[in-house]
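Write out the 3D structure for:
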Amino acid sequence: MSTTAVPGQSVGAETGPPGDADLPVVPARHPWRWAAGAAAFVLVAQFVHGLATNPGWDWPTFRAFVATDSILKAVGITLQLTLYATVLGFLIGAAVAALRLSRSPILQTIAWVYIWAFRSIPLIVQLVFWFNLSYLYRRLGIGVPFGPVLVDIDTVHALGALGAAVIGLALHQGAYAAEIIRAGVLSVDGGQLEAAAALGIPRLRQARRIVLPQAMRGILPNAANEIISLFKSTSVVYVMAIGELFYQVQVVYGRTGRVVPLLMVATAWYVLLTTLLSVGQFYVERHFARGAERTPPPTPLQRLRALVERITETRLTPPSARTTAPTAPSGGRP
């Protein structure tokens, strides 16, 4: 067996096998990994090249409409729908989750039926039902059950298209939010509640100080996914002729005949806003992870800074220092 002398490195005894300190450290080679990465990079480059050079995408039309007043107004309506439906949906979901976690079989059954019904019916069907609520009920009121009505409203004028859309989206979202919240609460070890009860901590304080902080780590990732899904599901309300983003894009390309570039306008806005929601999700999850991890996961900026520092250190380190294994002093710990 022969060894290769490395500049700046000592060579072991000529008559015996080399020691661990004399062997050069060679980085592991991953040729197939590099080949797969190169193939993927070529495919991505071809796709980007097609986006830039294919005249069918019609980028001049895209630039002409991407920031027009009508599109920006439609983006605002889309965000309003998402915000209102998210707030109402998670309020409804929290209430339904509390019913499902209660010890009353009647309340548990009612909550289960609600979740079963709203998860079984497609969202677009629910929206059309709410849009035609005035056909089923001309007036809605509050009063004695099966008796006289004390206060009532006319549903034709009180509930417009936007209100019907918010109610439909919120009720649909509430069914999914209830299961997300219930799963997060159940993920907390029951022994902690027993210990808190043994210490005499009130139930409300147990929920606020013990259950909720731990349950949030399980609730937030799924809740963020639901919000992003709801944001994209607002495009379904085009059936109610509400001027949200997708409906407005349809109006414009119906007038101009430029289908593909207008669809790209909607796509660009959906991608941009979904990215912003994902960034917010990352930082919220990082905030609630502080209770379980001493070192929270690094932010993208911290990852980039660490990569630059690692590359800088590698370039400044002599090759002999990078390829020689660290040696431990005799009798000491490495």
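The first strand starts at residue 139 and ends at 143.
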